Every structure is written in structure tokens, then in C-alpha cells.
Amino acid sequence: MPAAGRAVPAYGRIAGIVHVVAPGSPALRSGAYPSRQVNRKTPSAAEIANVVVFVKDAPVEQVLPVTHSSIAQADEAFVPRVTAITRASTVEFPNFDPFFHNVFSLSRGATFDLGRFRKGEKRERTFMQAGVIKVYCHIHSEMAATIMVFDHRLYTTPSVNGTFAIDAVPPGTYHLSAWHERIGETTKAIQVVAGESASVEFSLPVPVVGK
Description:
The protein has 211 residues and is mostly beta strands. 2% of the residues lie in helices and 55% in strands. The protein is built from one helix and 18 strands. The chain has a five-stranded mixed β-sheet with strand order 7-13-12-9-10, with no helix packed on it. Strands 1, 2, 15 and 18 form a four-stranded mixed β-sheet that branches. Mean pLDDT is 88; it is low at 25-43.
């Protein structure tokens, strides 16, 4: 029982770590040893930055804090490649390249075309519907980014070393997902207890680009 006069915590916490794992490749064959798979954990700042961890079945929140994020166009790439925001937040698209870009999306949650704009200019878009938004450039087909729009605040991006925490989680049983742009969701069941921290660990088999 809590001491008299002390408030009982209403929420719990989720904390954990995400490992980016290189998919296994067979070892050299020999007559003495059978072939085997070797998995090598390779936490990469670049790949960890493309991960979003979120409570998949979190309750929808009607009132959410809104943010203003930026996805730059630099060296013929979107930077960052993955951005997570709350519903009704705004993303701006500044152009730092010495040529035109034309940012667009055909995603169900947000279809738009920002038109051609040159270096030093920017366009922006407010996202009013939750979902996964794939963003491209009409002029440079290799450019791609993803915006994940949530109708709750129970999401985060891991730090460079893969650790993460989601605070103020209502008690209950949930499915926690770690999403990466090239493999989609990896989901685990998790129990959140008021006043306690639930721990979870993910290993994401992310293929190396170009392999």
C-alpha cells in the first residue's frame, strides 16, 4: 500500500534497446564443419536513425502537441530519411541543392505535389491524418523519405546507441512495434504497470543497401 498522502502513479514507462542486425550469411564450406548462419550485430547510427518505436494499439488522442519538423534536400537525398510526427504537425522541405527539386507523395494519408523549387527555397505541408507517408522527388527518382504520422504520443526514435524510452504510458497490455523503412514492423507484446518500467529488446535484420 502506498504511504498516506503519497500520490499513486497513474502511468508506466517502456524502455529498451534496438539492435540493427546484419542478416546471416553462410560460412565457408568444408568437409569438417557444417555450414552455419552467422548473425553480426552492427548498430549503425545511419540505420538506427531510420527506426521508429511505437505502441501499435495506443488509444487515439484527440488533443495532441503539434511539432514543426524539417526534411532537407541535400546531395540529392532527403535528410532525414525517416521522420515521426503527431497528427496536425507540419514538415518543411528546404532545398539546399544547386538545382530544382519537386517533392510529392501519392500515399493514401496525404497526396500532394509541392511543385518545383530552387536552392534556398522551401515548401511545407501539414499532415492531418495518421499513417505512413512515402515521399519522393519528381526530378530525382532515387530520392525517398518516409513520414510516420501518429494520432497519439506513444512513439519515439532510438538514440544513436539504440536505446529508447516512452514515458507516461497508461497501464495495460499492448503491442510495441519497431519499424524500419526496409523491413517494416517487428512487434512484441508488452505489459505496462503503473509506476513501473517495462523492458523490451528488438533485433532488426536490416539488409545492407546494395546487397
